[in-house]
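Hey,

Quick one before I head out. I ran the complex with zinc ion overnight. Inputs first:
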Amino acid sequence: LFVSKNGVKQAMPLELQQKHQSNSFTPISEKHLSAFRSMLGVTHVLTENEQLIDYGHDWTEDLLFMPEVVLKPNSTQEVSQVMAYCHAQLIAVTPCGGRTGLSGGMLPVYGGVMLSLERMNRIIDIDTKSLQITVEPGVITQTIHEAVEAHGLMYPPDPSSKGSCMIGGNVAENAGGARAVKYGITREYVLALEVVLANGDVIHTGAKVLKNSTGYNLTHLIVGSEGTLGVVTQIVLKLVPKPALEYTLLVPFAKAVDACKAVSAVFQHGIVPSAIEFIEKDALDFGQQYLGMNTYDTTGIEAHLLINLDGNHEQVLVEQSEALAELFEHMGGGEMLFASSQAEKEALWKLRRCLGEAVKGTTIYKEEDTVVPRAELANLLSYIKQLGREHNFYSVCYGHAGDGNLHINIIKQNMSETEWKEMLPKAIEKLFQYVVQLGGTLSGEHGIGYVQQRYMPIAFSSVELELMRNIKGVFDPKGILNPGKILNPSLT
Ligand code: LAC
Ligand code: ZN
C-alpha cells in the first residue's frame, strides 16, 4: 500500500501506517483467492498490479490506495456470497462503480477486496406507465438518460461525470448535478433499493410508490451512505416527462459578486431555471484551454452565469428569457448570449462539464464542495477570496449557484510542499466554520468519503456523530464495509 498525492509517490503517513498495522482485517491469501475464484470464476478475480492500480483511485486529487484483489460479481447472489465470506473471514470490502468520485469514497484505504459492480449493468425494466426505471448499479448514468429519453422521459440527476459515472455510485454519494436546482438530487429519485448487507443478508427498502409513510426510511439512509452501510444491487428510480424545449443562456458579469447576487434574484422573480451555474473567469479560461478553444472572451469579466430554462411552451420561455435579460441588466450583467443552435448549447455544456478535469489537469489543487443557502453565495465567494489573501492562496470557483453549491478549487501554484500542507487544513477549517455559520454544510454532492472526515466535527456535535457511528454499527458491526470513511476524523 502506498499513497501518491498530487502525482508524487509518497510513503503512507505515519499515523495511517500505524492504524494499518493495528487494524484487525485479515490480509488476503491464496486460500481466499481460490474461494473467490470458485464463487465468481477466475476471470472476475483480478490480482495483477496494473489492474490493482487502476482500481486504487478515483477522481479525487491524486490519491491512490491499492486493493489486494478486485472482484467483479455478476448478480446479487454473488455479491451476497462474497460479503458473507468476507464477513466470516474479517476481510475489508470496498464497493466501487465508475470510480469518478471526488471525496475518495471508493478508495480502499485498508486494502482488502475492491468489489466492482461494473458487470451488474443491466436495465431491468422501464415502466412507461408509472414512470419508473429499475436498474442494476453498474449502469452508466448517461445510459439511463438516453434509455428513458427514447420514451419521452427524463431522469434528472446529471453529475458532470455522467458519461462515466455509474448509478450505484450516484446513489452512494447522493450525486447532484446542474439540473438539481429545479428537479432535485439523486435521493429524491430513489424509490426502492435492493441492498446486500455486510453479513451477506439481502434486504429490500422502500416500494415502487411516490409516497411512503411506512416505517423508518431506510432507502434515504442508504442513499448518500457512501457504501458504508450496504452494497446496493438494484435501484428503482422515479422518472419525469421530458420537457420539449430547453433554452441555454450565458451572461457575463464584470463583478463575480454581482453574478452571485443575481442568482437569488432570479428565483425571487418567480423563475426556476433547470440549471443556473456560476463560472469564475479563471475556471472558464482553464476549461477553454483544456478543450483547445477560445470562443468566449473573458477580458474584464469576473464571472459568467450559465442558465438553462426548460418547458413545453415557447412563449413562456421567451418571456422568461426576456425577464432575465432585464433583471441581469439591472444587476451588473453584460449582454446575454442566447445559444441559438443545438451545437452551441452542447458546446457550452461540454465546456461547463469539463471544468473539474480542466482544473485538475492544469495544476495541483484541493477541491471543496461547500453549500450555503442560495442568498449567501456572494458572502461565501467574498470570504474565500479574503481567506486566500490571509493564507496566500489563489482559488478558482464554479458550481451549482442555484443550489448555493460552490466548488472551490484551492490552487497550490508555487507554494512549497511544506507550506501547502500546513496551510490547507487551517484554511479549510476556517472555510467550513464560516459555511456552517451561514447555515450551510461541508459537502453538497461529492460526499465526505475519505478526504473530508477530519472536518465532520465542524458540522456535527459529538452526540450527532455518535448517533451516526451507532447506525454504522447496526448495519456493519464488524466494520468490514468500506472502512475508514465518513466517521474517522483522525484518519486524514
Ligand atoms: C461539477 C462536479 C465537479 O460540478 O461536481 O462539475
Ligand atoms: Zn458539481
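The chain has 17 helices and 20 strands.

Talk tomorrow,
K.
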